[in-house]
Amino acid sequence: MSNKRHFRFVAISMLIALMLCVTVKSYAQEENAAEHHKIDTVYCGWSAHVDIASPFMGLIVDRSIRTLEAAIDVNLFNKIFPIAEIGYGQINSISKGGSHFQAAAPYWRIGLNYNIMRRFDNDDKPRPMHNYPFVGLRYGMSVLNYKLTDIPVSDPYWGGTQSVDYTGKNVYAGWLELLAGVRVDVAKGFTMGWAIRMKMLSHASIQKELLWYVPGCGRTDGLSFSFTYTLGFTARTAAERKKVETQKAKERAQEHVTIKQK
Length: 262
Hints:
By secondary structure, the protein is of the alpha+beta class.
């Protein structure tokens, strides 16, 4: 194993270990509270969101890349959020050496987010989860067509260079993502959030060296990072809406008592 691959393996292993430690600690706290209070319903609602950061990043950071994506998730126990993401990306880039890479394809991701905030307050009573930090894991996939042209290749025997082209159709690529972020309620039914993602190409149906960039994953020569900022709609069950309204009423009553005492 090369030093570069060894570093990537160690970095991802450490991040996975950190995520597991946070998850186990949070789960232990939840179990202690759950012993004294019955857990609420399993299904608590769903959300649909659109990422608005990726298109702007393409316009500001690298105009050769265009990406659009959206996601839908399901809220289980206010703790686990199975999620599916779909997007479309394209790239038309020329390297400093003159090589030209073109690719365009849809992509998909499946995985889950895990709410690391406690579901219970100090009195072991369930509290509404309308703002929460989370960690997540994704498996991404794409089937793309690409063109890699004008690659300079030197002839070790005769000398000189010549250009070589590569094309590929229906090339499958899969990758893993680790992420951390925050989801926040802005208004009734309207939510927003952000996340930082670390990605690494896991496997492909051709040599990875020929896939300079994969839509939805990014650069394939090592770890890549991206930032998503989402806006969307969250639909909660009647029980969850009642819990939120009850919590808001308690907060208003507490504020009234504090003001009266002053």
